[in-house]
Write a structure and sequence with these properties.
The complex is a heterotrimer of chains A (about 140), B (about 500) and C (about 130). In chain A, about 70% of the residues lie in helices and about 5% in strands. With about 140 residues, chain A is mainly alpha-helical. Chain A has a two-stranded antiparallel ribbon. Chain B is built from 20 helices and two strands. Chain B is mostly helical. Chain B starts with a helix and ends with a helix. Chain C has about 130 residues and is mainly alpha-helical. Chain C has helices at about 1-20, 25-45, 70-100, 105-110, 120-130.
Chain lengths: ~140, ~500, ~130
């Protein structure tokens, strides 16, 4: 889709959607929201950008290949489970502390891991499908 | 000390994740072996802990049972985790020597360790719905491993494996849902307390659903058809992992639910299990005798010997259950060794079709020994571990007066020996139809893990007392579930 | 209400099983999806119906009765995600199987030559690497 309107608006929307996704991620703490839904919005942002500017442009905006992001997301989620072990509590027991007056804890870190994992997995699927559509012989 | 219990989960998970994060091939290979060794060490430590302090339980996230997620390690779980570690190390060593760059590039090590993560989770979980989730974790990894590389045979086998697994997953989910509707609980210890209040007829119907769901996973009669159609397809470093671990998860689940939950009408349920065991034993070995391809033959042997594990569960005396546990542990080691050996032979002769193999005894007599050790153990000859496992089961059967199944068990032992003898004659004694060639890249590395497993089965056979007494401890805990319930819920029945 | 839903679950199960028994693999996959939804609905029904309020604690600590049983919802959410993953994998698997085997008819796949030790493309790559 090569329209000027989409190309221009997608730049704004991209930033806006990413902001929204981070907002949803952090809001998920105590209210509806969370890593999963936040990641879905972020994937939407990238999908929109890929639609307007092409796949390679969208890939350039990623710090890492999508599947590598899955790995990092899982690692972050795993790390959030470990502090409890160091304190002699069962795995994944939530640890809470105050940072600059804001109450944060390991569940937030876990949620960030979920965010990265879902983001990477879905983006890999969408990019894969997009590529398969352009080069059908190579398969999904 | 709750971290010991979660270590067998954390180590494969961490290894799998690191394999995803670190792209370097050397890093993945090192991690693959290190993770397996770490798992083995964790299994040993966990078993020692259970041996010292009894059944261990941990509530994940510190949410109390029966509301939180519980992990429990009794002797059975700890032993299964330990032998999983043994198989993992052997397979990792084999994979290092196999040097399959294409499949390593596609994420073999990450998937393999996620599979181990799922297997250990299934062994350690104390919650029925979590068991379902762990099954899915190991299934999804195994699906991808099954078709990793994407050869035609793998895809054809993968479709069958996938289809049957989907069916058994749904059945399991339905059974869990109905049991939850009947009792209002999912924590297995909590369930054990509540099933008494359920109508026995309803409970029997539910138990049959579980029998079918787990029976499909364990590949018992009449649900074993999918296994020989799919397990021979992937390369040995994958099929050995499947053969050693996946069916045993089904057997473990059967043993767990039919000792903890469904003991209200053993006259019906456990007699049925005994019949299933008999048919599995007999049909499996007869089909194995009819095979002309080594890995299919081994797959049918795998099916057949699942019957022995069910036999002990069906008899349900302390000695019989100990025999089942011992047999499962022994079989994991032996069948993994045989599948790895089949991969080695495939590498040497370019085929596993028996008529096209042969002539290996002259140039490689030590390879013949390497085959005979696990083969004799599988057939149950002394002084191998298989002998003691079979001996325990037969003795228990005679004590309980179950002469029919004992006769079947002995006959199947004989037929297994015949089947293994045929393989030996075809592969080693017969003149080679073509030229005998050495495997590219040398044999030592590939033979090492097979040798380790073979020595292990001999070692267990010569020094059977420790493992046998551990199996008996496991059987005692299974037949007296109050200890399990006490460890999880903190209350006694 | 439970009885009505039970019949619905039964009907969905019948549809799912019928579809799974059809020879075409896509029908099999759709059958799996229907069966999965039937199982989810079954868990939902098993958790008992008739509740009207979300199982949330109000800011003042009050709980609205009768609140919905939250456990089946958590179970179903998990089962849905797993079912989604399985279905996604299945679609890709069948797509690749169609490409490699040239058919999606289960009976044709069954009659295909047994998993013969024919070298896969990957094995050929490996031999090239080894040389």
């Amino acid at each position: 889709m090569n329209t000027l309107i989409l190309k221009t608006t997608s730049r704004f929307l991209f930033t806006l959607l990413l902001l929204l996704s981070v907002f949803l991620l952090l809001r998920g703490h105590n209210e509806p929201g969370g890593g999963f839904i936040g990641a879905l919005v972020a994937v939407g942002a990238y999908a929109l950008f890929a639609l307007a500017h092409g796949l390679s442009a969208a890939r350039k905006l990623l710090p890492l290949p999508p599947l590598r992001l899955v790995g990092w997301g899982l690692l972050v989620a795993l790390l959030s489970a470990l502090p409890a072990l160091l304190l002699g509590q069962p795995l994944m027991t939530g640890q809470w502390f105050s940072l600059l007056g804001v109450k944060v804890g390991t569940p937030v870190i876990f949620d960030i891991g979920v965010y990265l994992t879902v983001f990477g997995a879905l983006l890999a699927a969408i990019f894969g499908l997009e590529e398969a559509a352009h080069h059908p012989s190579e398969g999904a | 000390m709750s971290w010991l219990l979660v270590l067998p989960l954390l180590i494969p998970l961490t290894t799998g994740i690191l394999c995803l994060v670190l792209p370097g091939r050397t890093a993945q290979r090192v991690l693959g072996l290190a993770g397996a060794l770490g798992l083995l060490a964790a299994g040993l430590a966990l078993l020692a802990q259970v041996q010292r302090q009894g059944i261990q339980a941990v509530q994940i996230g510190n949410w109390p049972a029966p509301f939180g997620i519980t992990f429990v390690a009794d002797h059975l779980s700890a032993l299964m985790v330990l032998v999983t570690g043994v198989v993992a190390v052997a397979v990792a060593l084999f994979a290092l020597a196999e040097n399959d760059q294409a499949r390593e590039g596609l994420g073999y090590y990450a998937l393999g360790h996620l599979l181990l993560f799922g297997v250990n989770g299934a062994f350690l979980t104390g919650d029925l719905f979590n068991l379902y989730v762990w099954f899915e974790v190991l299934l999804l990894s195994s699906f991808v491993l099954m078709i990793l590389g994407g050869s035609k045979a793998q895809l054809a086998g993968g479709v069958k494996y996938f289809a049957v697994s989907l069916l058994s997953s749904i059945l399991f989910l339905v059974a869990v849902g109905l049991l939850y509707g009947a009792t209002g609980a999912l924590n297995m210890a909590d369930l054990a307390l509540r099933v008494e209040r359920v109508h026995p007829g309803l409970l029997t119907a539910l138990s049959m659903l579980f029998l079918v769901a787990f029976g499909l996973k364990a590949a018992v009669f009449p649900f074993f058809f999918w296994l020989p159609a799919s397990y021979p397809a992937p390369p040995a470093m994958i099929s050995a992992l499947f053969a050693g671990l996946l069916t045993k998860v089904g057997v473990y689940a059967l043993i767990r639910v039919f000792t903890l939950l469904f003991t209200h009408d053993t006259g019906f349920t456990h007699s049925l299990i005994l019949w299933v065991a008999g048919f599995t034993l007999l049909l499996g070995v007869l089909m194995a005798l009819a095979q002309g391809e080594l890995r299919r033959l081994l797959s049918f042997q795998l099916v057949s010997h699942i019957g022995y594990m069910l036999m002990g569960l069906g008899i349900l005396t302390p000695l019989a259950l100990a025999g089942s546990v011992f047999y499962a542990l022994n079989h994991m080691i032996v069948i993994a060794a045989l599948f790895l050996l089949a991969g080695l032979l495939q590498r040497m002769q370019g085929t596993t079709v028996l008529v096209r193999m042969g002539g290996l005894y002259g140039p490689y007599p030590w390879l013949a020994v390497l085959f005979l050790l696990p083969a004799f153990s599988l057939a149950g000859l002394p002084p191998f571990s298989g002998f003691w496992a079979k001996y325990t089961l037969v003795a228990a059967g005679l004590q309980a007066g179950q002469y029919g199944i004992v006769a079947v068990a002995l006959l199947v032992g004989l037929l297994t020996l015949l089947s293994m003898g045929l393989v030996f004659a075809e592969v080693f004694w017969k003149k080679a139809p073509g030229e005998v060639r050495a495997a590219p890249g040398g044999l030592g590395g590939l033979a090492l893990p097979v040798g380790l497993l073979a020595v292990l089965t001999l070692g267990i056979g010569l020094w059977a007392e420790p493992l046998l007494s551990l199996s008996q401890a496991a059987a005692r805990e299974l037949l007296e579930p109050s200890g399990y319930i006490q460890a999880v819920l903190g209350v006694s029945r | 209400m439970e009885i009505l839903l039970s019949f619905l679950v039964g009907a969905l199960m019948a549809v799912g099983v019928y579809l799974m028994l059809r020879p075409h693999l896509i029908q099999f996959l759709i059958g799996f999806l229907v069966l999965g939804n039937a199982a989810n609905l079954l868990i939902f029904t098993a958790g008992r119906l008739g509740s009207q309020f979300p199982p949330l604690v109000q800011p003042d600590g009050a709980v609205l009765e009768p609140y919905a049983n939250p456990l089946p919802q958590a179970l179903i959410l998990t089962a849905i995600v797993i079912g989604f993953g399985l279905a996604a994998f299945g679609i890709v698997l069948f797509y690749r199987a169609q490409q490699a085997l040239g058919t999606l008819n289960a009976e044709a796949i069954l009659e295909a030559p047994e998993p013969a030790p024919a070298p896969s493309p990957v094995d050929e790559v490996r031999e090239e690497v080894a040389q």
